[in-house]
Amino acid sequence: MSAADINMGMNDLEDRAILHTLMYVLYAVFFVLIIYRSRRTANLRSEKLSDKIDWIFLFLFNRSLYIISLLYENNNDTNLEVYSIVLPLPRKYFVTAGSSEGNSSLNAFDGALLNARVGNTNLLRVSSILPPGCEYEPGLVIPPGSLLPIAYGSITSSEPGDIISAAVGVGIKKDSFGVIMEFSGKCSKKEAEEQVTRMLEEAFVMRGLELDEVKVAAVEHTVLNIGCAFAAVPLWY
User: Fold this and answer.
1) Which residues are annotated as catalytic?
2) Using CA atoms in the order 45, 46, 47, 49, what is the torsion angle rounded to 10 degrees?
3) What's domain 92-236's architecture?
4) What residue ranges of the chain are covered by domains with CATH 3.50.20.10?
5) Cα 66 to Cα 5, 72, 75, 82, 186, distances in angstroms
6) pTM exceeds 0.90, yes or no
């Protein structure tokens, strides 16, 4: 082996060390942003403002992935490893629903989360696809303080006498991925269940898939002061 080969190997090691350092800096920044986002949106009563913050963090997340992919574009194995670390596929899920009264909209929402068994977690709202091979575990317990990927629908009302409902449905195709749909509105529990089921049926038709199984969770609530209905599909590892 020549001196040039040794120098080239050393330079390669140095480059990889720099890339790994940059990668972990990106991880650290991203997870700090997630924690800040979870705490920040927990204090927001405006759903529109919360959604805007979701989009900002989604943009930052995608930019981070893009930078990492550029750093590792010449190493396919490492590239796959990076993505598996940043985006682990959930392997478990359950469907849940809860409702609550509160002296404020936020307290009503918090109570509904507690009754749905996710009140002591930091919610990371996701959209509508259930990963392939994800197993249904109705008794799953999520550790307190966890960053929890979750698809949910909710409605809050301060009009006494209002009947509000929320529902989620998971459509399952055997040996494939699934689809999650959420619905909430001023209606009965039965109406919410029927609506979310119709949404799942349409989603599968649009994808050209056969709908083998449907799991639904729904709740109905009659508002006394300020009430919230919440239904969700938590995803876990």
Assistant:
1) 122, 127-128, 182
2) -130
3) 3-Layer(bba) Sandwich (3.50)
4) 92-236
5) 32, 10, 15, 11, 42
6) no
